[in-house]
Structures are given as structure tokens and as C-alpha cells.
Inverse folding.
């Protein structure tokens, strides 16, 4: 039996409020992504999907729950529901980073404006000790070609690249360390529709070529429908529905999933019906 690329069990995260209370951002969320598979995590703003993504890559420490990559637990600072110590540093931190990489929504913010595309990729390889000298140059050329960036783009800094080109560079940088899992947090939300299509095709091709597992966090159900095998729907920190993407989008079982689908403008769309469906949802505590 093949070991799943990613197993998440019972992730839980709360944040302190100014009045001394706490609010729950993620409430016992669990899911599995097989090796080479893809999972979409969808929901409205505030549903907790981005918090899940940030816990996967150590940007946020869970209060409870486990995260396992290729059979190896990587959850930092959690035991019996209580935090324990800081996230690892040095070699251990780099090892963890190589397991799961993330691509953010705004590539201009995530890229160093001082570095050309080629320098950016060389820096990632050097940091993780992947390649040196001529081997590093060869690997950088391979990465640039893999994401469709040519010689001009290779020597350009982020301000000299389009949004789509910057996102291609961000994907190449994430792939440089050969991760087991690639998390994409609204990675095409800031791009024009035609550029979105190009990036989605690129991600599908990369998954076929490398076998990397994808976790695609998005509010856009159409995007998720194109790039994922399975979908998890979140509402107010909880997973309300999960299953094969085609089934979830074509025959949703939960009223909230049906509401999300009814909110997408289309021919004959009636916004009043969407408002009515929202009013019928059972309020959550």
C-alpha cells in the first residue's frame, strides 16, 4: 500500500481576543492527500482555509492535531493538545521546508525585488544545499524551462516581469527543493483569467511530471474544479463536506456547499435565491 503524501488529523487552532476570550479558526480538520494527488480546500473568507495552509508550512503553530508527510510526523510544538517549544531551527527547519513548500497569492510580495529570476533560484538551491557550481546552473535552467520562463525573464527582476511570470518564478523556486507537497494559497486569484488558465495548465503538467502532491486553497470553485481530485469545504473553521471534486461540485450534500455553488454568477443566476439559501443555513456557534 502506497504511503500518502500528506495526512492531516484533528488540526485545531484558536486565537486570543482583546476581551480575553478566544476564537476558533480551525476546528478538528482532517484530510489525506495521496502521493501525486491533489486536494482543493474551499470556503468563504474567514472559513479557516488559509490558516490550515499556514499550519502545513510551519507559519502558524497548531494547538492540537498532527501533520504527517510520507509517514513522518512533522507537527511542531504539539503534544496532547498543548504546544511544546518552538519550531525547529537550522538543518531541521530546512528539512521540514523541503517537505512542504508554499506559493502565495501575491508573487511580488513573496519574491526578493533585488534578485533576478536566475539569482532567486540559485539562492534557493544554495540555501538547501541541493546543487553547486555547474550542476546548480544546469538545474536553474531546467527549472526556468519547466515553468516556461525564457532567457530574458531569467535575467529580469520581479519588477520587470508580469504577474503571471512572477508566479511562474515563485512556483519554480518552490519546486527547486523537490518537495513532497506543494501548497498553493489563492495562487491564481490575482491574475487575469487567461493567465490563470496558463498557470493551472502548468500546475497540472508539473504534477504529472514530478509526482508532487498539491493542496490548492481557493475561494474559486471553478479553479478547484480544474486542478483537484478531491475537495474539502470549510465553514467557520470546520470541514462540512469532503469527497471527489466532481461529486462535491456536481452533487453537493451539505447546504453550505450548495450555497457556495449558488453564489457563482451564471446564465439565469438569481442572487435573491442565494440570499434565501443563506438565510436557511443553520447558524453556527
Amino acid at each position: 500500500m502506497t504511503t500518502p503524501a500528506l495526512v492531516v488529523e484533528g488540526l485545531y487552532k484558536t486565537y486570543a481576543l482583546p476581551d480575553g476570550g478566544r476564537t476558533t479558526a480551525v476546528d478538528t480538520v482532517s484530510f489525506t492527500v495521496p502521493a501525486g494527488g491533489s486536494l482543493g480546500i474551499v470556503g468563504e473568507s474567514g472559513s479557516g482555509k488559509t490558516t490550515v495552509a499556514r499550519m502545513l508550512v510551519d507559519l502558524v503553530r497548531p494547538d492540537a492535531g498532527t501533520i504527517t508527510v510520507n509517514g513522518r510526523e512533522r507537527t511542531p510544538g504539539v503534544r496532547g493538545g498543548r504546544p511544546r517549544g518552538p519550531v525547529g531551527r537550522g538543518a531541521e527547519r530546512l528539512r521540514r521546508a523541503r517537505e512542504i513548500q508554499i506559493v502565495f497569492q501575491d508573487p511580488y510580495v513573496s519574491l526578493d525585488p533585488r534578485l533576478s529570476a536566475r539569482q532567486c533560484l540559485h539562492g534557493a538551491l544554495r540555501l538547501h544545499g541541493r546543487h553547486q557550481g555547474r550542476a546548480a546552473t544546469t538545474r536553474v535552467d531546467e527549472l526556468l524551462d519547466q515553468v516556461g520562463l525564457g532567457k530574458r525573464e531569467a535575467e529580469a527582476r520581479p519588477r520587470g516581469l508580469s504577474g503571471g511570470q512572477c508566479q511562474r518564478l515563485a512556483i519554480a523556486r518552490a519546486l527547486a527543493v523537490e518537495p513532497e507537497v506543494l501548497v498553493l494559497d489563492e495562487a491564481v486569484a490575482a491574475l487575469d483569467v487567461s493567465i490563470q488558465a496558463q498557470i493551472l495548465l502548468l500546475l497540472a503538467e508539473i504534477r504529472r511530471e514530478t509526482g508532487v502532491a498539491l493542496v490548492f486553497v481557493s475561494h474559486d470553485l471553478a479553479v478547484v474544479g480544474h486542478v483537484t481530485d478531491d475537495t474539502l469545504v470549510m465553514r467557520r473553521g470546520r470541514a462540512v463536506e469532503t469527497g471527489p471534486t466532481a461529486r462535491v461540485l456536481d452533487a453537493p450534500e451539505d447546504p453550505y456547499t450548495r450555497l457556495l455553488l449558488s453564489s457563482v454568477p451564471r446564465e439565469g443566476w438569481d442572487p435573491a435565491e442565494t440570499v434565501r439559501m443563506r438565510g436557511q443555513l443553520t447558524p453556527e456557534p
The domain at 38-62+99-253 is CATH 3.40.50.300 (Rossmann fold). The longest strand covers residues 22-33. The two ends are 40 Å apart (CA to CA). The chain is about 40% helix and 25% strand.
